[in-house]
Design brief:
Structural class: alpha/beta
Radius of gyration: 16 Å
Number of strands: 13
Helix content: 25-40%
Strand content: 25-35%
Order of helices and strands: EHEHHEEEEEEHEHEEEEH
Largest sheet: 7 strands, mixed
Length: about 260
């Protein structure tokens, strides 16, 4: 059995990466001060959707990633955060950076948000590979926002051994979208038979079709029960992931 203290830092990003880095590092420091060992930030925390993503995209050794890498190393925590890196075809990748002591990896969002009037694929190139990583004795899977609508990705992560799946997001607001977010985070936890820590951007009033966040970050158990959930505003969600729960669920309900 392993107990992992986790936090979702529900912040709101604007168009300026420098300002957003200050917001992100402050949130990581506060989460670590409250005991979190793994701190998850939202998708698009480098810069919000609606920004010219090509102009702000940075490689994974750029100043934004380097700033996150430094705060993670200084505090001895692992940080997961959504940023944009240049793609070979002139678009960008919607990438999760994972960094901290003994951990360095990344995941490029596979399923792009071409829905509800948005066309993420116009500016974002899709990733192709599922990613898990080890942190201590815990195997952690990665997914981003719209990936939540694809059950097979989460089942595959469960089969790869993920006991926790972290899902940074910048969920689009709209009729029924809160209910869909709540439903999908719970369903995907049951599909993976893993804990799901979903970190959304705090609510921002809609501007066109850009997904800017609704809040409602949550921690869900491997049986799809909501362990904790935030409201709409900027906040920190803390929780404890118990891997023995994963083992017990997979033994009693052997769907994987």
């Amino acid at each position: 059995m392993t107990l992992l203290r986790v936090a979702a830092a529900q912040v709101s990003a604007g168009p300026d990466p420098v300002t957003n880095l200050a917001t992100a590092t402050d949130a990581v420091r506060r989460a670590a001060a409250d005991g979190a060992s793994l701190v998850v930030l939202p998708e698009a925390v480098l810069a919000c959707f609606g920004t010219d993503l090509r102009s702000v995209a940075e490689p994974l050794d750029g100043p934004f990633a380097t700033g996150l890498r430094k705060v993670a190393a200084d505090l001895g925590v692992v940080v997961v955060a959504g940023l944009f890196e240049p793609a070979d075809d002139g678009r960008v990748h919607n990438t999760l950076l994972v960094t901290g002591p003994g951990v360095e990896t990344s995941y490029r969002k596979i399923h792009l948000y071409d829905a509800f009037g948005s066309r993420e694929s116009d500016t974002v190139a899709p990733g192709k590979e599922l990613v898990t990583f080890g942190y201590g004795d815990v195997t952690i899977g990665l997914a981003t926002c719209y990936d939540l609508r694809f059950a097979d990705q989460f089942t595959a992560l469960g089969r790869l051994g993920a006991e926790l799946v972290v899902v940074p997001a910048s969920w689009g607001a709209g009729p029924g979208k809160e209910e869909q977010w709540d439903l999908l985070t719970r369903a995907r936890a049951a599909d993976a038979q893993a804990w799901v820590l979903a970190c959304d951007q705090a609510y921002v009033p809609p501007v066109g079709t850009d997904p800017l966040g609704i809040g409602r970050s949550s921690l869900t158990t491997p049986l799809g029960q909501t362990a904790s959930r935030l409201g709409a505003t900027a906040d920190l969600l803390h929780g404890v992931v118990d891997t023995s729960v994963v083992a017990g669920v997979r033994q009693r309900v052997p769907i994987l």
